[in-house]
Amino acid sequence: MDKVYEDIEGYQGIEVQELLNGSVLVRHTVIVTLLVTTQSQEKLQNITTNVQEKIKEGVTQFNCTDANLCFDSSRVTVSEGQLQFDEEAYCQSQVPQGYQEFFFPNLTSSGLSCMSNCTPDTASTIDCHRGRCQLTRTGPQCL
């Protein structure tokens, strides 16, 4: 399957879901990695379309008279891709123990950031006037 999907953006491999009765029928999931941004869902839709195109190419690309993998395009279905990423859980896993409750994800077009109310230049930054914000185990405080 790697030969079919190798040009798909972020392709990591496949996960076999089920082997079905018949010749060699395999229900599988194509695994891709993406930078998490505000455009991730749109990008995933494009990748799903590319997977469909690669399968169509695979039908004509491989010669079924030798030992190569062959596709029966009448049996191929491609489901909508699903993002499986928990931004909150990710941020909590990235900060020191005892500070998790004070961090939250901030998703932008350039990626995901884990921030607190002490992160400068954000909408939720605490204004400490002339002091500075410091995150303690009891939460953000102005010093």
Write the layout of secondary structure elements.
Blueprint: H1 2-5, E1 11-20, E2 25-32, H2 40-61, H3 87-94, E3 104-108, E4 111-115, E5 133-136, E6 139-142
Give structural attributes.
two-stranded antiparallel ribbon, 3 helices, 6 strands, single chain, about 140 residues, alpha+beta
**Structural class by sheet pairing and helices:** alpha+beta
Helical amount: 10-25%
Major beta-sheet overview: 2 strands, antiparallel
Strand content: 25-35%
User: How does the overall form come out from the CA principal axes?
Assistant: elongated
Radius of gyration: 23 Å
Low-confidence stretches: none
User: Helix segment count?
Assistant: 3
Strand order of the largest sheet: 1-2
Element order, helices and strands?
HEEHHEEEE
Number of strands: 6
Distance between the termini: 58 Å
Mean pLDDT: 84
Task: Provide a quick synopsis of the model.
The protein has 143 residues and is an alpha+beta fold. The chain has 3 helices and 6 strands, in the order H-E-E-H-H-E-E-E-E.
Description of the structure:
The longest helix has 22 residues, at 40-61. The chain is elongated, with a radius of gyration of 23 Å. It has three helices and six strands. 24% of the residues lie in helices and 25% in strands. It has helices at residues 2-5, 40-61, 87-94, and strands at residues 11-20, 25-32, 104-108, 111-115, 133-136, 139-142. A hairpin with a 2-residue loop joins β5 (133-136) and β6 (139-142). The strands form three sheets. It has a two-stranded antiparallel sheet. It is α+β, with helices and mostly antiparallel strands and 143 residues long.
